[in-house]
Amino acid sequence: MLTLRPAVPADAETLERFVRELAEYEREPDAVVTDAAAIRAQLEAERPPFEALVAELDGTPVGFALWFRNYSTWLGRPGLYLEDLYVTPAARGKGVGKALLKRLARIAVDAGCGRFEWSVLDWNTPAIEFYRALGAEPMDGWTVHRVTGEALSRLADGG
Fold this sequence. Notes:
CATH topology: Aminopeptidase
Strand content: 25-35%
Oligomer: single chain
Mean pLDDT: 97
Radius of gyration: 16 Å
Order of helices and strands: EHHEEEHEHH
Largest sheet: 5 strands, mixed
Distance between the termini: 53 Å
Number of strands: 5
Low-confidence stretches: none
Structural class: alpha+beta
Shape: globular
Number of domains: 1
Strand order of the largest sheet: 1-2-3-4-5
């Protein structure tokens, strides 16, 4: 039986494992710098920087969705940004990913969000097809930009 539940601090090790498995799948295994202690501390915070759901099949964790709130000035409404969605290979095709996305859509609608969005790697055809089958549309004409590490520090220090 599939159950979805909010992540709690005791899930930190499971979430770290899923994040590392996702990074491996996305061909970036060395990019993960977080660990279970950081995840646990963030989940224990008064205002956690993210929310997450853990998906379980017959009591065994098989996936997760991690998101945070954003805001659209054009809509004048909050939004929900899905940072990570992951289902273990053995549990794929069993409705876990769809159930997680449906629950997040419900959370977004109930919170008055004007949009629910996420990014997907261009080469991840299975995910793109899955998302499109659920009604998601790519945002053509938009390119994600990111500043991290030393470039972020330089920008913060005046450019």
